[in-house]
Amino acid sequence: MMISVLMAAAVLSGSATAFHTCDGSTTQTASGQTVQVGFVAANNLALGTWVEMRSPKRVMNRRWFKVMDRGGPGFALDFYAESCAWMNSFGRRNVSYSVVPRSELYRGKPYKGWSLRKGSRGARLVWSPR
How many CB atoms neighbour CB 115 within 10 A? Predict the structure, then answer.
């Protein structure tokens, strides 16, 4: 319990790469789900953990990623890319990120950016990235 509290407050840094199945095949993550944009692979974090990007602020116009696979040494991240071209242009670069604490999660997703919109058919949660 104490380790997760310390990791949530710390900003971690490491190298990052991108991955995409350019041949059109589908791959399965260590969690058992098919890979999709928004998933990241990391060896040092538990599956299902959300990470918030610090530098750069966004990767593929996303700020939060969910750890759903294993890969990369140490604090390295491996992003699932939206296309082969994006994967090739990303290459390898240094990133910094922090673990999103459980207190900031709402229904399994980061709370920052979610808002409650009221409409004619009731209220619903809407994601609006900053």
Answer: 9
